[in-house]
Amino acid sequence: MENQIQITLPDGSIRTFPKGVSGLDIARSISEGLARNVLAAEVNGEVWDASRAIENDSTVKLLTWNDTDGKATFWHSSAHLLAEALEALYPGVKFGIGPAIETGFYYDVDLGDQKFSQEDFKKVEDKMLELARQKEVYARTPISKAEAIAYFEEKGDEYKLDLLKDLEDGKITFYSQGNFTDLCRGPHIPDTGFIKAAKILNVAGAYWRGNENNKMLTRIYGVTFPKQKELDEYLHLLEEAKKRDHRKLGKELELFTFSERVGQGLPLWLPKGAALRERLENFLRRAQVRAGYLPVVTPHIGSKQLYVTSGHYEKYGKDSFQPIHTPDEDEEFLLKPMNCPHHCEIYRSKPRSYRDLPVRFAEFGTVYRYEQSGELHGLTRVRGFTQDDAHIFCRPDQVEEEFMKVIDLVQYVFKALGFNEYSAQISLRDQEDRSKYIGSEENWDRAEQAIISSAAAKGLNTVIEYGEAAFYGPKLDFMVKDALGRKWQLGTIQVDYNLPERFDLEYTGADNKKYRPVMIHRAPFGSLERFVAILIESTAGNFPLWLSPEQLAVLPISEKYTDYANEIFLLLQEDDLRGYVDHRDEKIGKKIRDAEVSKTPFMLIVGEKEQAEGTVSVRKKGEGDLGSMPIGQFIALAKEEINKNLLKF
Ligand SMILES: [Zn+2]
Ligand SMILES: [Zn+2]
Question: Which listed ligand is nearest to 80 at the C-alpha?
Fold first, then answer.
C-alpha cells in the first residue's frame, strides 16, 4: 500500500488515492461538475495549484469561486494574464509585483516611454480575453536561483532581479502560461479558460517597493470573473456605490464640510448635519437612560500621566498628536485619544460596594487621533471624532447579564435605523498560547462563555474567531450589511481586565474584602462620524423619516396659496414635524424636482382645490402620488411611519 495515500476531506471522510493525486483528480472522483469549478486546493492549510501532485497523507479542501482563497487565486492568476496581455501589446514592459487584492488584482509595471491611459483599457481587456480563450495552462516549474537570475538578466527585468535577491535557492518557482513566464510562488488556477470576463478599472502611480526614492511604476488595477453576468453585476454595484459615496452626498445634502484652514481630517457639521447628529444622540441618550446609564462629561484633554497610567500613551504617544505644554508650570497634556481613563477616574471618585454594581457611565466623548493625511477619508477616517462611548463597571458574575443588555440596545438601534441584516464576530483567546493575556483564567473563561451564551440567547448570527481577542479581554463586534451587500463594522462590546488593574479599581464584596470590577467598553454607533457615513452610504441619503433633516416640503402652486401653505406648515410644526415652505417664485415642477434632489420624504402640494377643500396633495418619495387628504390624515400617516421605527426601548 506504499503507493497509496489517505486524503481527509472537509466532511471528515477519509479516502485512499494513489500517491501524486492532485486536487483536480480528487474533484473528478467526486463529480465532473465539481472538477470544472475547482480553482485551487487547500492542502494541510496551504493553498496549492489544483493540478499539483500530493505525495503524503493530507487534509484537502477543494476551493471554488465561493471560497475567499479560491477567488484570490483566480484574481492573482488574472494578474499573470494581464501581464501576458501587456507583454504582447507593449514590448519591453517590465514587471514588479502583481497580487490579488480584496476585489480584483493589480500589476505594477514599468512601461518605459510607452503611455498607458484610460483609452488603452479596452485593448488590454480584449487581449486578456483572447488569451484566456486559448485555455493556457499555468505550469509550475521549480528553478535554481542561478537559472532564475540568468532568465531575468537575459530579459532585462531589474524588478524581478531585485525580488530574487530576497529569495532562497531551492524554494524558487516559475509559472508559465502561453508565452509569458513569471517569478512566482503561486498558487494559480488550472488554466486561463476559467477567466470569462475582464475589466481594467484604474491606473495609478506606485513607487517600486513603496519607497519614494525608487522609480514610480504604473499600477494597473483590474477585476475578472468566471461569468460575464458577474462582471456586469459588479460594475453596476460600483456605479451605485459611487452615487452613494458619503463625501458626495454629504455635500449635496449639506450635512458636513471640510476646510483646509480648519485642518485636514476635522469635519465641520453644517446645520442639517448637526441636526441629524443631534437626533441620533438624543435617540441613543433616551434609550440609555432607560437602560440605566448615567451620563457623564469629561474634558477634551487629560494629563499625560493619566495616559501613561492607562497605557494609551505607550500606544498613541509618539505616533499621535504631541503633548501640549503649559507656559509656566511645565505641565503636559494630551488630546484625549480615548474616554476610558477619564471614566475610570470617575469610578474611583467614591468607594463602591458590590451592591452598587453595575454602574454604567455614558458620554458622547470627542477624541483626537493622528492619522496620516493620505489615510484620511471623508467621515470614515478623521482626526477628531465623537464616540457614543460608555463604560460598564460590574462584578464578574454580572458580565453575561450586561452583555445581554448591551446586545438589546444595539439591536434596538439597528432596528430604528433600518439595518436588518447584521452578524457578529466573537473574538476569543488563542486556543493554544495563553501567555499574552492578562486577567485570571477563571475570569476569562467566564467572560468568554458569557459572550457566547448571551449572543446565542439573543439569536445573533455569529462567527467565533480564536486568537482575535485583545490582550486585555474578549469582545463582540457587529457587522451590518447594506443594500449593496457591502459589510461595515459597527458597534463593539469589549470586556477589559486591564484598566481596572492599572487604575486599581475596587469594590467591597459582601465579605468586606476588596475585589476588582470588570470593565466593559461599548459603542453601538462606534463614532457618530463613521456612523453617519455608513448611514448615508447604506440609505443613499434616504434616511428613515424620524431622522430626515427635512421630513416634508410644502409646495404652493403659486403665490396665491402662500397663506394657506403657511397655515398648513404651522399645523405640521405643532405636531413636531419639520421641513419648509418653498416660497420661491418658481414653477411647481421645479419645486418638486428640487425637493427630490434634497431627498425630502414628503411633498405637500397646495393649490386652489386643496385650499377650497382644506386638504393637501401628498407625494411620497419612492412611492409617488398618494392623492389628496385632510391635513390631520397626513399627520397621522407621518406619525405612524416615525413610530414604526422608533418603538420604545
Ligand atoms: Zn503568480
Ligand atoms: Zn473605552
Answer: 1
